[in-house]
Amino acid sequence: YKKQEATVEPPSELREILDAKEFAKARLYKLDLAKFSFCHDIVDHIQTALILLLDLISALWNLAGIICVKIGIIGEVYQSMWVVGLAIIISSLLDVPWAYVRAFVVEEKHGFNKQTVPFFIRDTIMKLLVSLVTATPIIAVLVWIVKWNSEHSVLVTGTFLSVTGFFLMTIYPEVIAPLFDKYTLLP
Fold it and tell me: Which intervals hold domain CAAX prenyl protease 1 N-terminal (predicted)?
């Protein structure tokens, strides 16, 4: 941050392709983004510390257990799915103000924001749904692997995560990304 703040002229290597005005705009954007990220990181660290100090993970586990009992499904797999689902929802809700400020304050100040509020809301809901739809079944399989295959669970878990990662990378451009943005093929 300090180096970016102190560098007011473009480096000699960039002077031919980047004029001083463009460099100044990019520099101010990066400085604002760095300040924003610094504040966000501090709050994230405080939240993480509070989660650990207040033992909120076990509280979430207990809440998930109560939900499972109320809806009539019992077991570690289901309870783990509820824990992950609730954690994703809580995390998403805590991140909404930060995402809003980044898009509609920081990026808009520098002319980069192309989002509208309705698009932002839709995008946020879609991210939440995609996270829930992908993460909860993955957690279910991981818990099942560890529970039923404890002797080789490290190998099986690693293999499952690798295959799942490759699968998600394969379907992302065709299935997941189009949910958020329109893509046109290049000529």
Answer: 4-182
Which residues does 68 contact at the CB level (< 8 Å), separation at least 6? 74, 75, 78, 79, 82
Q: What are the distances in angstroms from CA 24 to CA 8, 31, 62, 70, 140?
A: 7, 10, 52, 58, 50
Q: What Å distances lie between residue 104 and 8, 59, 99, CA to CA? A: 26, 34, 8
Buried b / exposed e across 63-96, counting CB within 10 Å, b at 16+? Answer: ebbebbeeeeeeebbbbbbbbbbebbeeebeebe
The string of pLDDT tens digits covering residues 24-59 is: 888 899 999 999 999 999 999 999 999 999 999 999
Q: Summarize the confidence of residues 64-87 as an average pLDDT.
A: 96
pLDDT of 103 reads 95
Share of the chain above pLDDT 70, in %: 98
